[in-house]
Amino acid sequence: MANLKVDAQAEVENVRVFVRVRPLTKKEEAEGHQHILLIDTKENLIALNRDGSSPKPFKFDQVFPEDATQLTLYRVIAVPIVEKSLQGYNGTIFAYGQTGTGKTYTMAGNYTKPDLKGIIPNTFSHIFSQISRASGETSFVVTVTYLEIYNEEVRDLLSADPNKKLAIRERPDVGVYVKDLMGFTVDSIESITELLNRGNKNRVTRSTLMNDVSSRSHAIFTITIESKNRSNNKTTVGKLNLVDLAGSERASRTQATGERLREASNINLSLSVLGNVISALVDGKSSHIPYRNSKLTRLLQDSLGGNSKTAMIAMVSPADIDYEESMCTLRYAARVKHIQNHARINV
Ligand code: ADP
Ligand code: MG
Questions:
Q1: What are the DSSP calls for 226-249, one per residue?
Q2: Which residues neighbour 159 within 8 Å (Cβ) at sequence distance 6 or greater?
Q3: Residues near 327 by Cβ (< 8 Å), separated by ≥ 6?
Q4: 298-322: string of b/e by CB count within 10 Å (b at 16+)?
Q5: Phi and psi at residue 219, to the nearest 5°
Q6: Nearest CA to ligand 1 atom 11
Q7: How many angstroms does the Cα of residue 231 sit away from the middle of ligand 2?
Q8: Above 0.95 for ipTM, yes or no?
Q9: What is the pairing mode between strands 235-244 and 218-229?
Q10: How far apart are CA 326 and CA 330, in angstroms?
Q11: Strand partners, 91
Q12: Which atom of ligand 1 is nearest to the CA of 98?
């Protein structure tokens, strides 16, 4: 990876919020749906223009239009966080949005094609290239876990039995952890990619059995990087969480009842707790951060806040039919960071 420069803003800010817009699909085009987004990439403003009235834009750390490449997102969003994780800090990248807006495309992408690789496979290349460049004095141990949270239940995507529910425990010496979660040590891009594939296959299998559970579950791929300097015996440990969140669509739209309604309320709960946690961290005033109110935030507690770096990427569809959901996504993402809205958008 050629350009690993970390921009100054990423250095000083611990929480950054981004928006990515996917292109209209062929089907949406064929059905005559309109592209209703207005984007000002200079000011990083975005607005939904449904009825031609002048819409109020939202401002973010950066807005990525539909032609933004995977590598651009990697450089802007992930490089600062991955670099910090190599130095012993924790970091988390979340993909948020309605199902079908590009969360999995952004996090995983198509990693058989170099240009279409998402953040997770680009992270693999980045980490192993930095490790191979490090001086002989420093040795690294890279460990991976991959879990799914569905209906507030935790499952290990790398286990031989990915259907088994795992318990969350807490110990004063190690903090919050998942009992029996498998951790694998990896020493190459190939071996870490193999684990990603294995976990994804388990996700898909469970999804086929349970009617697309993957869009209704959070997947957390965690890379722990331990580095030890032989000359001063100093050890640092950095943890990087790459999170493909459950679809944020509201239950009313899918007309859910029974089990689906329970799923939907669990998703709503965990996404709203996540929003509350991040916005409390941005605020910096609140002494109580509500980590314990969902499994997702409880598990990520040691990677949210303090010196940790957090990025949220809110995905939106450009189509008129998705107006309501896109509006909810932009409001959620804006609330997370309390970025001042601008009165006007110039595009
Ligand atoms: P989600 O994980 O949010 O449900 P996906 O990542 O599966 O959504 O994306 C839905 C579809 O849109 C996929 O076919 C994906 O390839 C396509 N897509 C998403 N984002 C982009 C993008 N930025 N450029 C091109 N195609 C995209
Ligand atoms: Mg997905």
A1: EEEETTT--EEEEEEEEEEPPP--
A2: 180, 182
A3: 48
A4: bbbbbbbbeebbbbbbbbbbbbbeb
A5: -115, 130
A6: 100
A7: 45
A8: yes
A9: antiparallel
A10: 6
A11: 240, 309
A12: 3
Contacts of 190 (CB under 8 A, 6+ apart): none
Tokens describing residue 296: 């997702």
Residue 55 has pLDDT above 70, yes or no: yes
**Partner residues linked to 147 by β-bridges:** 156, 220
Residue 208: pLDDT above 90? no
Question: pLDDT > 90: what percent of the chain?
Answer: 80
- 284 CA distance to ligand 2 middle (Å): 32
Rg, the chain, Cα only: 20
pTM of the model: 0.95
Least confident of 7-16, 58-67, 230-239, 297-306: 7-16
Residues 6+ apart with CB under 8 A from 117: 70, 109, 110, 111
Which range is least confidently modeled, 80-89, 137-146, 198-207?
Answer: 198-207
pLDDT in tens, 279-312: 999 988 878 899 999 999 999 999 999 999 999 9
Is 199 annotated to bind ligand?
Answer: no
Q: Are 246 and 218 in contact (CB under 8 A)?
A: yes
Q: Which residues are CB-contacts of 245 (< 8 A; sequence separation ≥ 6)?
A: 94, 95, 96, 97, 103, 218, 271, 274
